[in-house]
């Protein structure tokens, strides 16, 4: 099982500059791993010296690490943290070497770094039933100054956004997002204006009311108030029509924002626009369990739970998808869920193998790989 590279960098330029593809939605067509511009094994750049020696990735054509994991020790140099509970969210810190990792079911937030044991930062009270728990994590837009972190969590009463500060209990920022028997998960991102983007599930409701916070893409300030530039200045709602969102990703160069969604009959990728979400820009009729995503210079990478892989598609300057998609990292690390980009451009992924997968002794894990440029026709 060869590993390959992915794509991305996370920041949003929203508010009128995002455009929806003019062509109809595309469906998934698998391309063999290793083909196309992202072929070959994933590569990690020369690492900062670590307390423990690193084993380099195997040569092209060689499957997996040289040795299997032994307990929580994983010889794969791309594995950053091991023996976690299923990973619900990841936020990489400004140094690009450490990250905060949220465990969906336990509500624990851990600081992880290669070569070090995970360090507990906080434990959030969560209710993980109905797909909920801790499913979103993002740094404050002014993290270097305030050291604040925002999380999307499910409680016994609702789904909500909370703010974390060192040594303090979590503080509610936006509460009252409906929770139900299903579709309680959500996702977080930050746009370039410093507003929080919040994707909410429909809580099992077929058609949430227009004024409900369920099944929406919300845009709020760091105090939980409607962000400036929303369609309705008094409402946090930017877009409507979500069911069970898995992740939000933004392309800083293109000014396009994307959200993955799991529906009853198919999984989809939407380009985010104000108002009702248009027809999906991409469809997966086989419902692979789309989760977190990243976007950079037209390349969108989507973590998939069931095929245990990363799905990569590319678009042109008008956000129209071109060429054939690629399925990479297939069955390399198991079920992929959380995905985010570090400040240095490296792609961080989290696994959920303990939730219905076939975990190895070092699961669940956080992995870091180096994406390649979108390349060729994808540049402006």
UniProtKB/TrEMBL annotation:
Residues 89-275 form the Glucose/Sorbosone dehydrogenase domain. Residues 60-77 have a biased composition (Low complexity). This is PQQ-dependent sugar dehydrogenase. It holds the Pfam family GSDH. Keywords: Signal. SUPFAM superfamilies: Soluble quinoprotein glucose dehydrogenase (SSF50952). InterPro entries: 6-blade_b-propeller_TolB-like, Glc/Sorbosone_DH, Quinoprot_gluc/sorb_DH_b-prop. Residues 1-18 form the signal peptide. Residues 23-77 are annotated as: Disordered. Residues 42-59 have a biased composition (Pro residues).
């Amino acid at each position: 099982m060869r590993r390959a590279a992915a794509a991305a960098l996370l920041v949003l330029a929203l508010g009128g500059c995002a455009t929806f593809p003019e062509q109809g939605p595309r469906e998934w067509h698998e391309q063999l791993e290793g083909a196309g511009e992202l072929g070959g094994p994933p590569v990690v750049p020369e690492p900062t010296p670590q307390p423990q020696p690193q084993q380099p990735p195997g040569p092209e054509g060689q499957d997996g690490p040289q040795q299997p994991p032994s307990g929580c020790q994983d010889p794969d140099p791309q594995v950053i943290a091991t023996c976690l509970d299923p990973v619900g969210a990841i936020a990489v810190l400004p140094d690009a070497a450490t990250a905060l990792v949220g465990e969906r079911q336990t509500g624990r937030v851990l600081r992880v770094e290669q070569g070090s044991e995970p360090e507990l930062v906080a434990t959030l009270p969560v209710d993980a039933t109905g797909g909920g728990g801790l499913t979103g994590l993002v740094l404050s837009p002014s993290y270097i100054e305030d050291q604040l972190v925002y999380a999307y969590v499910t409680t016994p009463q609702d789904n909500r956004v909370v703010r974390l500060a060192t040594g303090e209990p979590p503080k509610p920022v936006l509460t009252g997002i409906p929770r139900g028997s299903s579709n309680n998960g959500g996702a977080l991102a930050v746009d370039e204006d410093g507003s929080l983007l919040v994707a909410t599930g429909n809580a099992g409701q077929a058609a949430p009311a227009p004024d409900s916070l369920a099944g929406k893409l919300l845009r709020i300030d760091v105090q939980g108030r409607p962000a400036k530039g929303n369609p309705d200045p008094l409402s946090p709602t930017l877009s409507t029509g979500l069911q069970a969102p898995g992740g939000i990703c933004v392309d800083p160069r293109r000014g396009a924002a994307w959200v993955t969604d799991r529906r009853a009959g198919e999984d989809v990728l939407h380009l985010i626009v104000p108002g009702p979400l248009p027809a999906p820009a991409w469809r997966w009729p086989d419902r692979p369990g789309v989760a977190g995503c990243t976007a950079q210079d037209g390349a969108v990478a989507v973590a998939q739970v069931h095929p245990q892989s990363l799905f990569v598609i590319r678009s042109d300057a008008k956000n129209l998808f071109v060429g054939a998609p690629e399925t990479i990292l297939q069955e390399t690390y198991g079920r992929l869920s959380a995905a985010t980009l570090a400040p240095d451009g490296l792609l961080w992924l989290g696994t959920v193998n303990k939730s219905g997968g076939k975990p190895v002794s070092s699961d669940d894990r956080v992995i870091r790989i180096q994406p390649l440029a979108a390349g060729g026709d994808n540049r402006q």
